[in-house]
Amino acid sequence: MEDERETFLSKIPQVSGNLDNEGAELKSLRLCLKWVCLDQSNLWRASLSWSIFFLLAIGVPIGSHFALSCSTCDENHSRPYRLVVQFSLSIFATISFLCLSTWSNKHGLRKFLFLDKLSDASEKAQHGYTKQLQRSMKLLLIFLLPCFVSVCAYKIWWYVSGGTKLPYYVNIYISDTILCTLELCSWLYRTAIFFLVCILFRVSCYLQILRLEDFAQVFQKETEVGSILVEHFKIRRNLRIISHRFRAFIFFTLVLVTASQFTSLLDTVPSSANVNIFKAGELIVCSISLVTGLFICLRSATKITHKAQSLTSLAAKWHACATINPFDNTDGEIPRARITSSQVFSMNHYWESDDEEDGDDDLDNTKLVPIFTHTISFQKRQALVTYLENNKAGITVFGFMLDRTGLRSIFLIELALFLWLLKKTIDVS
């Protein structure tokens, strides 16, 4: 029986508006997904996908570790940190590939990136999200290319300067060329998959940021509280979906990056390690790549959580403006013409941001106009503020909110572990 679900690649977006015609960058996204072999629509393609994964993510690292072990090489070619590097890259590639395969079977690209719901967003949000999709592959190259160039330079130096001291088979030039190419392909494959998941998480969050910015505009006009709640329900639901999809990836990335960096610290801090750029060059590039991917995820999660929670402050400001409105105690209908420009200025003057104020809270800095409070009762406004205070939206990882407070907690835990491990390492050495 033919599977009715569309595959990850077959659901390339065909929505109205800005996405009707695929831009060059959206086609690049499709090519990138094909390159990492996510098309598992039939047995042949699924076998090819898993075969390439096992070859480049597992087979090549294990084979090169044993094939290139060199007990007679000099210190600069001994590569004492190779095991940490290969294991770290392979484990992250495995987690990323499993996540992508799971999403491939459960969702299509259109549903996964919320393109099926993009028609509900404003034209501004659609245009902004389209531009972000087109930038996604550029961002992937920006993060990936510098690390890949560094690895290429290191690998080429290692093979060229090693000469006949390095293990080779039959012909030294052909052997070194094949082994170097396989190692570079393996590194690029594993790192690209990891960065791709991080970029997909960032893109998924970006649409919700655009919707939050649109949502903030409802407080600048007469709006029913019910419609405000319905829109907030949609945003909270989308954030819960994103959190559920990526929570395992973010959790394992945080834990394993920490473990990888602490393992590297144990290997490099002792005075007997004799670390230099030739021995630890590959370890440095690997650490930069993993920490950069974690930074992308944490920054995206923290940014959207901060904006979502800023809505509470904005709603409280809106409620306060409405409560102190001089027309609040006036009976009957209030003609709009009676609101003078001086009254408009006085209300905005209380709440507008100072020129020297930090502009982090984009939503909270929204300027409010005088509100006709006879259209929205005090009780409804108070109920809305109370709801937002007790139903904070954001990205969560197994119930832990990834906001600025959570990020500080993670930093303090990491710092405490680092100092404790550093003390133990120094004592031992």
Task: Explain what the structure shows.
This protein has 11 helices and 2 strands, in the order H-H-H-H-H-H-H-H-H-H-E-E-H. It is mainly alpha-helical. It has a two-stranded antiparallel ribbon with strand order 1-2. A hairpin with a 2-residue loop joins strand 1 and strand 2. Helix 3 crosses helix 6. It is elongated. Residues 1-25 and 326-359 have low confidence and may be disordered.
Q: How are the strands of the largest sheet arranged? A: 1-2
* Arithmetic mean pLDDT: 76
Class by SSE composition: mainly alpha
Strand element count: 2
What portion of residues belong to β-strands?
A: under 5%
Spatial separation of the terminal alpha carbons: 64 Å
Short précis:
This protein is mainly α. It has eleven helices and two strands, in the order ααααααααααββα. It starts with 23 loop residues before the first helix and ends with a helix.
Question: What is the strand and helix layout of this fold?
Answer:
Blueprint: H1 24-35, H2 43-67, H3 82-106, H4 109-112, H5 123-162, H6 172-215, H7 225-268, H8 277-323, H9 341-351, H10 378-390, E1 396-397, E2 400-401, H11 404-428
Antiparallel strand pairs: 1-2
Transmembrane segments: 43-63, 83-103, 139-160, 187-207, 246-265, 277-298, 405-422
Pfam families: DUF3537 (PF12056)
Organism: Quercus rubra (Northern red oak)
